[in-house]
């Protein structure tokens, strides 16, 4: 079981009932954040906002969408990486300053937030939340540049780390990606409208066509004159997050122009070649292990089946019986299919091992269901370092692979064998998007941007 998701962003201009299109877009991006959702629309030069904690379907109703009129909108689904699950940190943020009203939402973590925030507070700035987004908005409003577009550039040149950001103003929609391009941002077209999304699965739901990626370091501006692009940020080697392909993104999305389903299947095939084992059944840890397990099965010739069933309706918290001596834990989410597993030598495929406690429970569950052997196969290298670019990860001392070798991990989780994908194999699986140039810091500790502080996803 992997690191936690981060955030999803969506934007569209110009489109009748833009907020309803954004609502659909956010629905498709729900997997990227379940703690809060928000939409800001633009109508006759005024911005309208609704945001709250909860799932997209709970946050919005016919009535709330009716209060978001206009022909342009941006939206956000949030998973808080740091700063806690506080309502004040929901996106988008809207401020009114010398450039009129500006709304902003973003995906990613800034790595110099504390320095910038401290400097801004010293200069008299006040903040209502721990969000990085407020820092960017403050920098825009305090910029020396005479135009809003140049003020945005001036602000983005000061921030470090990961950001895929959408900005809605009284007369433009802007999309920008940090120079390393850590987090994805795709551009699409729906009739006359230009649309942006963290993942292309949102375009599919709307019937929009995928056009291209917003490039690392690019600023795209959409207004009445049309769509224009510039590259005002420092030119550096792009470092898109490989974990989007390992785990975060939906398999039906294109991310960095690559099919996530195809890359995950390749990871599974390479894993089967690297760590073959005599077994009867390949079983994914659902949902994120499914595509890699299919690849493992195809390459090895071992049959694939759903030996674990996931309950998709589990909320973030649930109440256990007070008198219970058992901990329900992972059993609430996953249940084994005993009839499939009994007496079988099982290859269990998952995307990653973080703390190892969940993997240990799953292995134990599969054994208790009657499996004769359990062989764990992981479709990424050992995760030894935390992420500072928008993914919620435990500190290094809590990462199992930072504390022990593969044999230690095997003993800890109680499997008969454990096999990880190698870094070379992972690079090979995303080679069509420039494999070696991705960010692999959580596997290598080689951080493309020195982490000076941990910001918040939005
Ligand atoms: S450290 Fe890992 S999770 Fe974070 S951006 Fe890099 S590859 Fe992605």
From TrEMBL:
Q: Where is the Glutamine amidotransferase type-2 domain?
A: 7-225
Q: Which GO terms describe its molecular function?
A: 4 iron, 4 sulfur cluster binding; amidophosphoribosyltransferase activity; magnesium ion binding
Q: Where is the active site?
A: 7
Tell me which cofactor or cofactors this protein depends on.
Mg(2+); [4Fe-4S] cluster
Instruction: State the free-text cofactor note.
Output: Binds 1 Mg(2+) ion per subunit.
Give the signal sequence positions. none
Q: Where does [4Fe-4S] cluster bind?
A: 241, 387, 439, 442
User: Which terms are listed as keywords in the entry?
Assistant: 4Fe-4S, Glutamine amidotransferase, Glycosyltransferase, Iron, Iron-sulfur, Magnesium, Metal-binding, Purine biosynthesis, Transferase
User: Which reaction does this enzyme catalyse, per its entry?
Assistant: 5-phospho-beta-D-ribosylamine + L-glutamate + diphosphate = 5-phospho-alpha-D-ribose 1-diphosphate + L-glutamine + H2O
List the CDD domains hit by this protein, alphabetically. Answer: GPATase_N (cd00715), PRTases_typeI (cd06223)
Q: Does the keyword Metal-binding apply?
A: yes
Q: Which InterPro entries match?
A: GATase_2_dom (IPR017932), Ntn_hydrolases_N (IPR029055), PRTase-like (IPR029057), PRTase_dom (IPR000836), PurF (IPR005854), PurF_N (IPR035584)
What metabolic or biological pathway is this protein involved in?
Answer: Purine metabolism; IMP biosynthesis via de novo pathway; N(1)-(5-phospho-D-ribosyl)glycinamide from 5-phospho-alpha-D-ribose 1-diphosphate: step 1/2
What the entry lists under PANTHER family is as follows:
AMIDOPHOSPHORIBOSYLTRANSFERASE
Q: Briefly, what is this protein's role?
A: Catalyzes the formation of phosphoribosylamine from phosphoribosylpyrophosphate (PRPP) and glutamine.
Q: Which family does it belong to?
A: In the C-terminal section; belongs to the purine/pyrimidine phosphoribosyltransferase family.
Name of this protein: Amidophosphoribosyltransferase
Q: What species is this protein from?
A: Mesoterricola sediminis
């Amino acid at each position: 079981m992997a690191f936690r998701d981060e955030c999803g962003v969506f934007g569209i201009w110009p489109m009748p009932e833009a907020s309803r299109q954004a609502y659909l877009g956010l629905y498709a991006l729900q997997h990227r954040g379940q703690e809060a959702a928000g939409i800001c629309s633009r109508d006759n030069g005024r911005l309208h906002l609704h945001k709250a904690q909860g799932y997209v379907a709970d946050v919005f109703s016919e009535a709330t969408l009716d209060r978001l009129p206009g022909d342009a909108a941006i939206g956000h689904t949030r998973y808080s990486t740091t700063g806690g699950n506080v309502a004040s940190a929901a996106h988008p943020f809207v401020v009114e300053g010398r450039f009129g009203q500006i709304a902003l939402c973003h995906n990613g973590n800034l790595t110099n937030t504390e320095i910038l925030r401290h400097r801004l507070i010293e200069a008299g700035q006040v903040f209502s939340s721990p969000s990085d987004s407020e820092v960017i908005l403050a920098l825009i409003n305090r910029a020396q540049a005479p135009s809003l577009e140049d003020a945005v550039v001036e602000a983005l040149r000061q921030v470090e780390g990961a950001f895929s950001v959408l900005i809605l103003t009284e007369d433009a929609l802007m999309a920008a990606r940090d120079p390393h391009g850590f987090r994805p941002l795709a551009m699409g077209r729906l009739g006359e409208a230009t649309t942006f999304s963290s993942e292309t699965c949102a375009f599919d739901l709307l019937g929009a066509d995928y056009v291209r990626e917003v490039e690392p370091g690019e600023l795209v501006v959409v207004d009445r004159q049309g769509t224009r692009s510039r590259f005002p940020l420092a030119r550096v080697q792009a470092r898109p997050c490989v974990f989007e392909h390992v785990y975060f993104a939906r398999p039906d999305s294109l991310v960095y122009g690559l099919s996530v389903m195809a890359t995950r299947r390749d990871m599974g095939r390479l894993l089967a070649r690297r760590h073959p084992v005599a077994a009867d059944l390949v079983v994914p840890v659902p949902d994120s292990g499914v595509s890699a397990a299919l690849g493992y099965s195809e390459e090895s010739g071992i049959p694939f089946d759903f030996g674990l069933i996931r309950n998709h309706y589990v909320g973030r918290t649930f109440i256990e019986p007070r008198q219970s001596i058992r901990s329900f834990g992972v059993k609430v989410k996953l249940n084994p299919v005993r009839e499939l597993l009994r007496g079988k030598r099982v290859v269990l495929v998952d995307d990653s091992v973080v703390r190892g406690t969940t993997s240990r429970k799953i292995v134990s569950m599969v054994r208790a269901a009657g499996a004769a052997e359990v062989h764990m196969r992981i479709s990424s290298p050992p995760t030894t370092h935390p992420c500072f670019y928008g993914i919620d990860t435990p500190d290094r001392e809590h990462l199992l692979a930072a504390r022990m070798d593969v044999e230690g991990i095997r003993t800890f989780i109680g499997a008969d064998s454990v096999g990880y994908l190698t870094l070379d194999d992972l690079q090979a699986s995303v080679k069509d998007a420039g494999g070696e140039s991705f960010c692999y810091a959580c596997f290598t500790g080689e951080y493309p941007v020195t982490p000076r502080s941990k910001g918040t996803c939005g």
